Amino acid sequence: MSRRHYDLPPFTTLSVFEAAARHLSFKDAAQELSVTPGAVSHQIKALEGELGTILFLRKHRGVELTPEGEDLFESLASAFRLISRKLARIRRNGDAAAVTVGSTTAVAALWLSPAVIDFWREYPEINVHQVTQDRPFQNTRDFDLFICYGKEQNPTLEQTPIYRDALVPVAAPDLALKLRDHSLAQLARQRLIHLDTPNTNWTKWSEWFAQLGHNGDISTGTRVNSYSVALQIARKGAGVALGWQRLVQPMLDSGKLQIVGTKSIPAPNQFYLAGLPDDQLSCNALALKNWLLNGARKA
Fold first, then answer.
1. Is the pTM of this model over 0.85?
2. Looking at the domain covering 96-162+271-298, what would its CATH class be?
3. Phi-psi category of 126—alpha, beta or left, where left has phi over 0 and alpha has psi -120 to 50?
């Protein structure tokens, strides 16, 4: 008799394999699963040992799936998607009135939360749970909807463009006035507020200057890991932040921040509203989705 009812390897080894195969990277899988690359490698070796076959070809610059690995990944990915959809449906049935939406702290404070407040005035019976964090969301299926900058590499998600922003330097009004006639080279020597984030989609100061033709040195300035903190430092007059103009428009309208000069570039990525396909969303989640998209189009 099999020691397991379905005669399957331990689920841990299967889930680790699926993540490594999806990323084609032990390092990226380890980051998603909050373990070390060594732990991922150990679980893969254990699975290969149990199955008696090699699933990955280890190469100098990464890994590739063997034919057996590709077959197993295709089966696991299909099964995991089905399980995920069933669990999402069960969760929605358990809290039918609630909608969970995720975003970064800055997006929540500057755009999402005001929109949700307006939504509540129209739909007071629908509860909306907001989850904020300034690192990429890993378990995206925990949300009905979430806002991301740049497309997620997940074919099971439906991703609707919200808008493409413009990137401009912003500072406290007094500092913005002082710097308004500065050249790019002069601006590059100011105290710049750099954003350090695991999300590589966010444009850096070096990229902004390079696109405008300045390839010289730029100030090391100060570094933060939260865009909200970057904006607060800029608001206090302690540096120049790289502003996503439409996102920070509330702070521009209130006079807390001001655009420095006239230099601007289009953001390389759009903001997207991502989540389950419409036919898998609850009526409440679909109502919020439509509300957010319609509001963004009118702005």
1. no
2. alpha beta
3. beta
